[in-house]
Amino acid sequence: MQIYSVQNQQTLRFNNCKTVLNIIRDNQATPISRADIAKETFMSPTSITRITADLIDLGIVKQAETFSKGVGRRATQLRIVNDAVLSLGLFIDKDFLRMCVIDCMGKVLDKACFCLEDRDYEPEEIIQLAKGLYDEMCTKGSFDSKKVKVLGIGCVGNIDNKSGYVFFAPQMGWKKIDLKYMAEEAFKMPIYIDNDLKMALIGTTYNSDEMKESDVAIVTIGVGVGVSVMYNGKLVRGISNAAGEVGHTVFKPNGRLCVCGRMGCLASYLTEVGMVEICKSKGYRVKSFKDIVEAYNNGEDWAIKEIDAFTSNIATFLGNMIYTYNTKYLLVIGSIIENYQFIYDLSFSKIKDIIHDNLYSDVIIKRVSNPYSAAMGAAYTAQNIYIENMIRTYINNHTL
Ligand SMILES: [Zn+2]
To answer: How far is the centre of ligand 1, averaged over its atoms, from the C-alpha of 250 (Å)?
Structure first.
């Protein structure tokens, strides 16, 4: 019985610390006092004093004495120590590595990008390139590298977020890789790894008051195609952390042959490579997606026809996602959407006619252009886990 009561006490203390920390964070712009926190949480002033003492002892929270207006009585307000734990985020994609460092308020202190060649890379090579990119960032001095405590990685493919194991990442040519171990060896800090699109959803919503606790789906259309979704701010993962891996669901029965060996997969229609292959198979001389856009801009009939079919396919896919997930927000990202606004505009204009009126009027569809969102989301998630572990260890060491 003794053991259970200690565990309950520790869990309660941990949850209280997290609640109070979140309140202080949410009020950073106009710092809050202990008395106000007590009112907001319905906890006793004595409890709040003890919880904030823990957070101050941990170095995550500090107090700033100010004079309240009018009477001149002293009220002590609490703030987050912005640089208590800096977190590094890395986004591994087929064509780019993107990296950023964030502080405890999620502010990006620095970012960097490395352009990959059009070939397969071994995972060790990618980790070494990322380490080189990080070392370069450190020499610039826009953050204190000693305060960077943790690395979060958003990687394309199906990843076990608990173990950091990559089951498959076809875009990279990777299968069954212990990416977490490789990253730990190179960076010498705790590592958190997750799917890139899930991290992009976190990166896009965590500092948005309107979206962070809402129902949001994010769709990527570019190098790959996929979707990630959260309800009430909580990610939907599925049993294999593969919820939203829609690239190899059938989009057109008996359609084009996909790289996976099956026919008519979404990935062979709604990606840059898929579109280029469609055009090539019809005899048009194109090497890249850019060539198709150029022909379109030059008014070539075939390109106008192909882009029209392509944007109708995007609209159909987005419509399918609206019916499937019925979220308040549908965010659209990915290289095609970010680089070519007109493709998004054309696709968007076609959605209204293909879904029911009430679903169309309920959903808020937004094009989001932030190539660093997956790196930011990974950095934020890793930082959150790191701080939780700090609090847990502290409580375990300070419970009688
Ligand atoms: Zn396929």
So the answer is: 8
Q: Does residue 400 have a pLDDT over 70?
A: no
Give the structural domain span for 339: 216-326+329-362
Distance 352 CA to ligand 1 centre (A): 28
pLDDT tens digits for range 168-181:
888 898 999 999 99
CATH number for the domain spanning 96: value is: 3.30.420.40
Looking at the fold, whether 42 and 113 belong to one and the same domain comes out as no
Rounded Cα distance, 46 and 64, in Å:
19
Measured in Å, residue 274 CA sits from the centre of ligand 1 at 11
Among 63, 81, 99, which residue terminates a domain? 81
Report CA(257)–ligand 1 centroid distance (Å).
8
The residue assigned the tokens 């106000």 is: 36
pTM beyond 0.90, yes or no:
yes
Tell me which amino acid residue 316 is: T
Looking at the structure of the chain, the number of domains it has is 3
What is the whole-number distance in angstroms between the Cα of residue 244 and the centre of ligand 1?
14
State the DSSP string of 319-346. HHHHHHH--SEEEEESHHHHH-HHHHHH
